[in-house]
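Technical note accompanying the year-one report. For the benefit of new consortium partners, we illustrate the data format agreed upon in the data management plan: each record pairs a sequence with a structure-token string. No post-processing was applied to the example shown here.
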Amino acid sequence: MRKFGEIYKEKVNESETLQENRIIKEFAVIYDIMLKHYGLNSVHQLNEESQLSFLTELNRYWNDADGLTDKGKQFIEKRSMELNENSTAIQKKNYLKDKTYAVINESLRLSNMKYRLYDVIDEMYNQLNASDLSDILTPDMITNIIFESFTKTINEFTSNIHKELSASVKPKKKLFLNVKK
């Protein structure tokens, strides 16, 4: 029969190993979520100053003694880019915002929008026989006009999406109470 002291030591070692594994697993979770949140594959993509900033933030969310802190749990709850049936409204909003930005940005890049707008300016340049861009309009005026055009277009675009999404939402049932007079 083994002695109580031997069994106790084994149990303490098992407990310490389990605690260390939990802490390491929590580190991996928060580190991965932070990388995804900042759009990184590795902390090494950052310059030295940004790496220090990233690691300082990481230390607010996790420490080697206790693992995930309360702030870390909040970070995961609110900023994680992983969605599931328990995702909060903030997580859903952040997910949609980040993905929408990426889609719009990539669409603009692929459409060569900037160069197509430059073509319009070149067309004006040629029609006016301009010798300088200022013969057409100032750079501030041109960029403001482009901004106004984008604003108008995006307002129309989002209005159409809103109508389509609203049409796809199931109407809520109204409760009618029989009220006798």
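Partners are asked to follow this layout when depositing records. DSSP finds six helices and two strands in the chain.
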